[in-house]
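Notes from hallway chat w/ T.B., transcribed later so I don't forget. T.B. wanted the structure written out for a chain they're using in a teaching module, and asked if we could keep both sequence and structure tokens in one place. Agreed to drop them here.
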Amino acid sequence: MKLHEPLKALYASKWEELCDALQTVVCGEKTGVKPAYPFLLGLTRWEDDRPTESWYTDADLKVMVFGQETNSWVGKNDDFGTPPSPVFSPNVSVEAVMGIYEDFYASYYHDGTFGYNGTRYGTFHYGFNRFAMSLNAAFPGKRIAYVWNNLVKIGKAQGTGFCGPEIYALERAHFPVIREEIGILKPDLLLFLTGTYDERIRDNWYDAQFSALSPYAVNEVAQVISSELSIPAYRTNHPSARLPKGEMEARYRAIVDDFASKR
């Protein structure tokens, strides 16, 4: 596939090195936090028993939406054993982990939004959907494709929250793939629903600056500006943030209005 193969090649080029580096964490008896499988993107859909990426490649606008990190990310692939384990294993193939993402999208993502009810991703995808609805309304008649990504590619095998400095340092040293993912998928817009994970953003774009988007303060809604980032990019709160009624949607509208003014 046009995008599947370069994504797979990117991940495969770093897979063995990453697996080797993580073994001290996976196998360490005293290690309290174990890593989940990394968040590998996969865009293949099956239509009439044939694989396709046209839902994304043929879109008029392509949007990549970032969350914070992936927790307890597991799949149902046979490659994961019975029962499937969320703990990172070098015996699991890149193709199988990419399949987790593809299966998730096939199950929950339809017509540009997520059927989030009843899933453990509900809060994040509630916000994701609200943004998608706002952007779709601003570009009637346009076909918009949304891709979900995370700033931290390796999360906890169990529990929630940041995986910790040891695992994250290994990820940064052996699996810094976000900028290359963007280079392959070529989105038209980046949205960071991450709250003030600004240092994580700077881990990928080292000179990133955050410019407040009126009428909001810089820690509420900001444009992300970097000499190495040519795509319009914005950062606002994670959807789990407690905001006054209607405030989440208002912040999304401010981003959409600014982006639309630049098109």
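Follow-up for T.B.: The radius of gyration is 18 Å. Might be a good example for the class.
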